[in-house]
Amino acid sequence: MKSYLDISKEKLDALRQRDDYYILAFESSCDETAVSVTKGREIVSNIVSSQIEIHRRFGGVVPEIASRNHALQIDSLTKEALDAASVGLKDISAVAVTYGAGLLGALLVGVSYAKALAYGASLPLIAVNHIKGHVAANFISSPRLQPPFIALLASGGHTYILAVRTFDDMEVLGSTLDDAVGEAFDKAARVLGLPYPGGPEIERAAKCGKPVYKLPRAFKGDKRLDFSFSGLKTALINTVHGMKQRGEEFSVADVACSFQTEAVGVLVDHTAEAVRRTGIKTVALAGGVGANGALREALSLRGAVEGFDVLLPPKSLCTDNAAMIGVAAYEMIRLGAAPAPLSLDADPSL
Ligand SMILES: Nc1ncnc2c1ncn2[C@@H]1O[C@H](COP(=O)(O)OP(=O)(O)OP(=O)(O)O)[C@@H](O)[C@H]1O
Ligand SMILES: [Mg+2]
Q1: Residue nearest to atom 26 of ligand 1 (CA)
Q2: What domains lie within the chain, and their CATH numbers?
Q3: Atom of ligand 1 nearest to the CA of 61
Q4: Atom of ligand 1 nearest to the CA of 291
Q5: Is 192 helix (H, G, I), strand (E, B) or coil?
Q6: Strand 42-50 with 32-39, pairing
Q7: pLDDT at residue 194, as a whole number
Q8: Does residue 320 have its Cβ closer than 6 Å to ligand 1?
Q9: CA distance to 59, 257, 284, per residue, from 291 (Å)
Q10: Distance in angstroms (rounded) separating the CA atoms of residues 28 and 74
Q11: pLDDT below 50 — which residues of the chain?
C-alpha cells in the first residue's frame, strides 16, 4: 500500500504545471487566525479573524491566550473560508500552512489542524515559511510580477531587505541586528501611552505632528544595509523621559512623527541603496509595517525620483493573512517543493 507521503508526491507532481487548482491555506503564527482558498495567484476567499481586541488590554500578544483562541476559531473559520469560496473539501488539491516563524503554541494549532485535514482528505501538505508568505502577498496584487526583485520586509518580528532571485533563492542584503521595526513602533507607542498595536496608533498621531526631535541613526556612514531599531527606541524613551523629568510639556504627535520619520527614512534609504548595488529596479513592500502610509508614500516617491518601480500590496495583505500563505505554496509547488511529512513540527525561530 502506498504511504501518505508517496500519494502526496504523486498528487503534487500532477499539479506542478497547472494554475487552475484550489489550495486551502492556514495562518496562525501570531494573533490572527486566518484561512483562505487560493487559485494560482488569485484569492478565492480570505477570512481573517484578528484577536487584537482580546490582547489590547494586556498591551501586547499573550501567547497562551493566542493559542487558545486559534484552537477555538480554526474549525469554524475553515468552513467559512470554504463557503465563501463556494467550494467543498473535495474541490481542494493541496493544503498549505505556516509552520514558522512565530509563537510556538499558536503555530502548533495551525500545523496540527492542517496536518489532520490533509491526512484525512489525502491531500498534499505544503509547509510555508511566514516570511516567504509576506513576500508572496505581492504576487496577489501584482500577478505578473516575476523575480528578480528587491523585497523590503518590515513586520512585527522581522526586518529584511531581500534580493529575491527566485522564490526559493532569497539573499539577505540587510536585516535588523536587534528589534524589528514593527516591534519598535509598538514599544514607541507604549512609551507614549498609546494602545497596542502601536504601528497604526503612531501613524495616526504622527499625522498631526512635526518631526521636531532629531533621533539618531545607527551605523551612520557605514556601508552595511543592516538596521538597529533598539537604538532608535532607546533614544525615543530617553527623549520622552528627559522631558517628563524636566517637567516640560511635549506633543505626543511631534514625538510620534519624529519616530516615524526616522524609522521610515532608514528603511527607504537602505532599500534605495540595495537597488543601486544590485541593479534590480523593482521593489516589493511586505509585512505589517508595509501598511504604514508614510512608508508607502516615501518609498513610492524615492522610486519615482531614482527610477525604480515600487509595488505596494493593499494594506490588508501586508498584515497577517492566509491568502499569502496559499500563494506562497502555489509558487513553491511550481518550483518543485516536496510535500511535508506528517512529522512536520512548528518551528518558532525558522
Ligand atoms: N500602519 C502601520 N504603521 C506602522 N506599523 C504598523 C502599521 N500597521 C501594522 N503595523 C505593525 O505591523 C506589525 C504586525 O505586522 P505583522 O502582522 O506582519 O507582524 P507579525 O506577523 O506579528 O510578525 P512577523 O510577520 O515578523 O512574524 C505590528 O508591529 C504593528 O504595529
Ligand atoms: Mg506577519
Answers
A1: 157
A2: 4-137+320-334 (3.30.420.40), 146-312 (3.30.420.40)
A3: 22
A4: 1
A5: coil
A6: antiparallel
A7: 95
A8: yes
A9: 20, 16, 13
A10: 9
A11: none
Q: Is the pTM of this model over 0.85?
A: yes
- The span from the CA of 34 to the CA of 276, in Å, is 37
Best of 98, 262, 289, 320 for a ligand 1 pocket test (most atoms within 8 Å of beta carbon): 289
State whether residue 344 is helix, strand or coil: coil
Which bound ligand lies closest to the C-alpha atom of 156?
1
- Within 172-292, residue ranges assigned H as helices are 181-191, 198-206, 229-245, 252-278
- The closest-lying atom of ligand 1 relative to the alpha carbon of residue 181 is 29
Substitution site in 319, 325, 350 for ligand 1 pocket (most atoms within 8 Å of beta carbon): 319
pLDDT at residue 211, as a whole number: 96
Ligand nearest to the CA of 180: 1
Q: Match 528627559 to its residue by C-alpha cell.
A: 242
Half-sphere exposure of 336 (CA within 13 A, CB side): 2
Q: Which of 234, 134, 221, 223 is nearest to 179 (CA)?
A: 234
- Name which residue sits closest to atom 27 of ligand 1, judged by CA: 157
Q: Evaluate: CB of 27 within 6 angstroms of ligand 1.
A: no
Helix (H, G, I), strand (E, B) or coil at 266: helix
**pLDDT the model gives residue 2:** 94
Q: Which residue has its alpha carbon closest to ligand 1 atom 16?
A: 288
Query: What does the pLDDT look like over 206-246, one tens digit per residue?
Result: 999 999 999 988 877 788 999 999 999 999 999 999 999 99
